Amino acid sequence: DTGVSQDPRHKITKRGQNVTFRCDPISEHNRLYWYRQTLGQGPEFLTYFQNEAQLEKSRLLSDRFSAERPKGSFSTLEIQRTEQGDSAMYLCATGAGNEQFFGPGTRLTVL
Amino acid sequence: DQQVKQNSPSLSVQEGRISILNCDYTNSMFDYFLWYKKYPAEGPTFLISISSIKDKNEDGRFTVFLNKSAKHLSLHIVPSQPGDSAVYFCAASSLLGGGADGLTFGKGTHLIIQP
Q1: What confidence tens digit (pLDDT) does each residue in A83-97 have?
Q2: Measuring CA to CA, how many Å separate B60 from each of A84, B55, B80, B100?
Q3: Which residue of chain B comes nearest to A10, CA vs CA?
């Protein structure tokens, strides 16, 4: 499978715990995005990487959130001190042309 | 403030007929528009896109129409098939491919194809 992959697919955690998600992009894609989707809403942009450089962050990305893309390959999104409001689907997308291709997402549930 | 609006949360269409999904936008800086399809427990799948220099783009059963003056686009699926049942998202950007700000999505329309 040469598509975008994300791990884990599901994560249940207790409030206050830290969680980390991983995204493996399509290998030749240099653009990588993270989005968050809550129930009844479309995906909302969180952050953007061009190769290894994080070039844009949404105001939705509080200081509890951090993302990295070492060596311009896979990316990680970490949420520290999780809150119940962080419960959502976290989607990774990559692109090298006009379109973005999404992974299956990581569903986070914060109890 | 919703910059991309899909005002119909759901739409039911009979198999074989035409499905028309609508989308309105408010940001005049948007110049590239995309439609994505999403099944439960999967990520959105790219369907079709259109640049603001065109008013129509066709790909098989899918056609997207863009009316820039009305800030309105629509996705036509004909004929509709049972496998088309999914949530459809309209998305827009001010740069080809989404640029640094990513894509701005609507809330989606749940299309149900009835046999």
Answers
A1: 999 999 999 999 877
A2: 43, 17, 12, 31
A3: B41
